Amino acid sequence: MAHGIPSQGKVTVTVDEYSSNPTQAFTHYNINQSRFQPPHVHMVDPIPYDTPKPAGHTRFVCVSDTHSRTDGIQMPYGDILLHTGDFTELGLPSEVKKFNDWLDLVSHCKHGRNPNA
Questions:
Q1: Taking the alpha carbons of 75, 79, 84, 87 in that order, is the dihedral positive or negative?
Q2: Which end of the chain is more exposed for a tag (fewer CB within 10 A), N or C?
Q3: What is the secondary structure of 38-67 as a DSSP string?
Q4: No. of H helices and E strands in the chain?
């Protein structure tokens, strides 16, 4: 973990003391803060899923680690969907198909793609 410190037009990058040991970093920051949050990272509270998007803005919808549990997710309207992490529990072909079907559903219903295009 690093952050820049401006100094006379130059940026000095300091490296977090735990950057070489992610397990120790997680333990340290998890114990010393109410939720894991590295220094210089500001948490942003999510907005309700049905909040209208301001004109002229691009909305990114970020989800992760759904592990084949996409049923019942209330997806907000957005322009770009980012899914990170695991989308299956076991990596079975049926789970991949289910996830692909879900992506098709949310792209038609929530992200403005014309299913007839």
A1: positive
A2: C
A3: -TT----PPPPTTPPPPTT---EEEEE--T
A4: 2, 4
Decide if 92 is inside a domain: yes
Is 5 within the bounds of a domain? Answer: no
Which domain range does residue 96 map to? 61-109
19 conformational bin, left if phi > 0, alpha if psi -120 to 50, beta if neither: alpha
Instruction: Give the pLDDT band of residue 48 (cuts 50, 70, 90).
Output: confident
Query: Do β-strands 10-15 and 2-7 pair in parallel, antiparallel, or remain unpaired?
Result: antiparallel
Please give the average per-residue pLDDT across 61-88, as a whole number.
Answer: 88
Percent of the chain predicted with pLDDT > 90 = 21
Structural domain total, the chain: 1
Average pLDDT of 72-92? 88
Mean pLDDT of the chain: 78
Confidence at residue 5, expressed as pLDDT on a 0 to 100 scale? 55
CA distance 86 to 68: 9
- Tell me whether residue 7 is in a domain: no
